[in-house]
Write a structure and sequence with these properties.
CATH class of the largest domain: Mainly Alpha
Radius of gyration: 22 Å
Largest sheet: none
Oligomer: single chain
Mean pLDDT: 86
Distance between the termini: 83 Å
Shape: elongated
Low-confidence stretches: none
Number of domains: 3
Number of strands: 0
Number of helices: 9
CATH topology of the largest domain: Arc Repressor Mutant, subunit A
Helix content: over 70%
Structural class: mainly alpha
Strand content: under 5%
CATH architecture of the largest domain: Orthogonal Bundle
Length: 163
């Protein structure tokens, strides 16, 4: 016996599907973010699942693509440490293996690249960096979540260059 479609459910589906599209229009979202967004709207699990399936059919939610996009954005715009990026993605419901696969697409260590960008940006603003400036730079990089060894290595290189 086929279940009758409830017009109220169809209306809710259409309304919140469109609402989800607006939510996705600002930036890509993980499946967990969409689920959390719809749960706040107090929708039934069946309608939420139906909306997620429809969004997936249109390739609007894909955790693999989202993880890749998130990493690229964080490395380009925020220069975040990998450890911090991984934590952010885990909080967004991305599986560890998906995160690791997304990170494996980068040819050089994203941390090294981010450290270099941040150091370059900071040194550009300083005409003649003092030892105090270098200490502050070191502390800033460590606070951003970068590995102590990587930061120490780069700071030693800077000190050698500056003599």
């Amino acid at each position: 016996m086929k279940k009758q479609k409830n017009p109220a459910d169809e209306e809710l589906f259409a309304r919140y599907f469109n609402s989800s599209l607006r939510f996705l229009s600002f930036r890509p979202r993980s499946e967990k973010e969409i689920t959390d967004y719809l749960l706040k709207k107090k929708l039934s699990p069946e309608i939420i699942e139906k909306i997620k399936i429809k969004l997936s059919e249109y390739n609007l939610i894909d955790d693999k693509d989202f993880a890749q996009w998130w990493i690229e954005q964080r490395l380009r715009n925020k220069q975040r440490a990998l450890r911090v990026i991984k934590m952010e993605l885990r909080n967004k419901g991305i599986a560890r293996e998906v995160i690791e696969n997304a990170l494996s697409t980068f040819s050089i260590s994203p941390d090294t690249e981010s450290i270099n960008k941040l150091i370059e940006k900071k040194l550009k603003r300083l005409d003649n960096p003092t030892e105090e400036d270098i200490k502050k730079l070191y502390q800033s990089l460590v606070r951003k979540g970068f590995n102590f060894d990587d930061v120490s290595k780069k700071i030693k290189e800077i000190r050698k260059k500056l003599g």
